[in-house]
Design brief:
mainly alpha; 1 helix; flat
């Protein structure tokens, strides 16, 4: 069985990703609305969706 690849071997540059997130963060913060639940994360943000219907469907 082959040894698993590292992120770098798979073509992922973690340092470049962190730098990109650092540079984008100020721009992303300008888009925050009341529906935003969390801050800027490593994968995705959390956004509150529409309220559920008040009646059973």
């Amino acid at each position: 069985m082959r040894a698993p690849l590292t992120y770098r071997q798979a073509g992922v540059d973690l340092e470049a990703g962190e730098e990109a997130a650092r540079r984008i963060a100020p721009l992303a913060r300008k888009t925050v609305r009341r529906e935003v639940i969390g801050g800027i994360g490593g994968f995705a943000g959390v956004f509150r969706g529409a309220e559920p219907p008040s009646e059973d469907l």
